[in-house]
Amino acid sequence: MPDMAYDPRMNYDPARKLTDGDVQDLKPDGWYGDDGKLFREFEFGTYQQGVDFAMRVAAQAEERGHHPDLHIYFRKVRVNFFTHDAGGVTQADIDGARAVDTLLPAPDAQADQD
């Protein structure tokens, strides 16, 4: 078997991994990535708004059973999707990114918060 960064006992399944082209075709607007990772950075008016958003993403991830990495910076939150046991981006990551986008306030509501 080729050199793998993953323990085969994890049910490593590279057949689920999408190609770079698939990721580019399927990713939602505003998201970046390839077969290695799918990510987006969200910016908020305050630190607390970013933390609140990260908490909503975490709650949604628990409900969906597919968890992104969350990085909170001052007024920014970066969301990274990557399916570890597939070794890249899968349809579950694309679906997760779309679901995260539903947590954003409407543009006019966000302008009111700024």
UniProtKB/TrEMBL annotation:
Gene3D superfamilies: Transcriptional coactivator/pterin dehydratase (3.30.1360.20). The lineage of its organism: Bacteria, Thermotogati, Deinococcota, Deinococci, Deinococcales. CDD domains: PCD_DCoH (cd00488). This is 4a-hydroxytetrahydrobiopterin dehydratase. Keywords: Lyase. Belongs to the pterin-4-alpha-carbinolamine dehydratase family. One of its GO terms (biological process) is tetrahydrobiopterin biosynthetic process. SUPFAM superfamilies: PCD-like. It catalyses: (4aS,6R)-4a-hydroxy-L-erythro-5,6,7,8-tetrahydrobiopterin = (6R)-L-erythro-6,7-dihydrobiopterin + H2O. Its EC number is 4.2.1.96. The keyword Lyase applies. GO terms for molecular function: 4-alpha-hydroxytetrahydrobiopterin dehydratase activity. It is an enzyme of class 4 (lyase). Pfam families: Pterin_4a. PANTHER family: PTERIN-4-ALPHA-CARBINOLAMINE DEHYDRATASE.
